[in-house]
Design brief:
This protein has 15 helices and twelve strands. The longest helix is centred in the last third of the chain and has 25 residues. Strands 2-8-7-6-5-3-4 form a seven-stranded mixed β-sheet, with helices on both faces. Strands 1-11-12-10-9 form a five-stranded mixed β-sheet. The protein is an alpha/beta fold. It folds into two domains: 136 residues, Aspartate Aminotransferase, domain 1 (Alpha-Beta Complex); 230 residues, Type I PLP-dependent aspartate aminotransferase-like (Major domain) (Aspartate Aminotransferase, domain 2, 3-Layer(aba) Sandwich).
Length: 385
């Protein structure tokens, strides 16, 4: 990870020239620290692999990388997380939310309720309600963002059919402990609940924390589960649209396999190649990048705690997102909206993460130090005013 510019104006000019939504959604002069994309270039080995595809004009029917992905992903998960999926049951999908949607569609019925551990990733709310299911809000413990097992148990009634889990957790950056995951598995087993585990952040975990796949906890239990994972967050590949899904529930797996072959679309050759290269050659780059992101995390949290002492800032154990409690500064339910106007900084809107996000903002620190320093400086100045 060698991208470390010092010229703020030049770096912003580079970022604003990109076509992605992160730097193009807001007016010129706005610093983007909202959506969960990195400002860092992806691993050079991935860039080289894609460049070779372009230079060869290799754009015909090509399923070489697709066919290798189940094995490569199985080895990646075993090496990094201690769980090896059965390769024959691995499904390549376009993104993690496609797997979540499929699991909810085939694992629940209209009117069923789905437990969300809130605050949580905003699309979870839309994907549940969009197919006629009901949300059951189960808030994590404020400040620590730990799971309260008794609260989870109390949320469940005769209509509850599923727990939708974001692990590691977005926006708080929590890495759930083995005890918390085992508690979820026990509750799911006792009430015959489906557990859908979005593990897209599994590979951005910092010192002292260790991600545990829900699949490991579910082994040996009578638990129905689905998990999804991708290289997109760790390697900054979201636009290439490739993810991995594992349907641990045989009935859901069967129903998906019965769909017409082309109904769900397919991952493109560039997306499959980039993901394959990440899993087979990208680990050294990822180690350097996570170390850099940990430094960015420490810098951000350290400055906010020193300069805005009444803010409650969670130290993320994973992700490149910080969850900041700004309620003490009377910025209203949506501090991000106020800071966008006052400071020309775009942060993640707290209320988008559910009712327990009111008064909070999410800050993406996956950028250069020079940009992050300017983001923090503008936020601090605006809040103090």
């Amino acid at each position: 990870m060698t991208h470390d510019p010092t010229d703020l104006a030049a770096e912003i000019q580079r970022l604003c020239a990109l076509s992605g939504i992160k730097w193009s959604r807001y007016p010129k002069g706005t610093l983007a620290a909202w959506v969960a994309d990195m400002d860092l270039p992806t691993a050079p080995v991935i860039t080289e692999a894609l460049r070779g595809l372009v230079e060869r004009a290799d754009f015909g029917y090509n399923f070489s990388a697709h066919q290798q992905l189940p094995s490569a992903w199985a080895e990646w998960m075993e090496r990094r997380h201690g769980w090896r999926p059965e390769e024959a049951r691995v499904r390549v999908v376009t993104d993690v939310l496609q797997a979540v949607d499929l699991a909810l569609m085939f694992g629940t019925r209209p009117g069923d309720s789905v437990v969300l551990l809130t605050p949580v990733y905003p699309p979870f709310f839309r994907t549940v309600t969009g197919i006629g299911r009901r949300i059951v809000d189960c808030p994590l413990e404020p400040g620590t963002w730990r799971l309260d097992v008794e609260r989870l148990e109390a949320c469940i009634d005769s209509s509850t059919r599923c727990v939708l889990l974001c692990s590691p957790h977005n926006p708080t950056g929590r890495v759930f402990s083995a005890e918390e995951l085992e508690a979820i598995a026990e509750v799911a087993e006792r009430h015959d609940l489906l557990v859908i585990s979005d593990e897209i952040w599994a590979d951005v975990v910092y010192s002292g924390a260790k991600h545990i796949p829900f699949a490991k906890v579910a082994e040996g239990r009578d638990v129905r589960w689905v998990m999804a994972h991708a290289a997109s967050k760790a390697f900054n590949l979201a636009g290439l649209r490739c993810a991995m899904a594992y349907f641990g529930d045989a009935e859901i797996e069967k129903r998906i396999s019965e769909l017409p072959a082309h109904m769900l679309g397919s991952v493109s050759a560039p997306g499959a190649l980039a993901t394959l290269t990440a899993f087979t050659e990208g680990e050294p780059w990822l180690a350097e990048t996570v170390a850099f992101l940990e430094e960015q995390r420490d810098y951000l949290v350290g400055r906010l705690r020193a300069e805005l002492p009444e803010a409650g800032v969670t130290m993320p154990e994973a992700t490149y997102l910080a969850w900041a409690d700004l309620r003490a500064y009377e910025l209203g339910d949506d501090p991000a909206a106020v800071l966008l106007e006052r400071a020309q900084v775009a942060l993640g809107s707290g209320p988008d993460f559910g009712q327990h996000g009111k008064g909070f903002a999410r800050i993406n620190f996956a950028t250069s130090r020079v940009v992050l320093g300017e983001v923090v400086g503008r936020v601090v100045d605006a809040v103090r005013r």
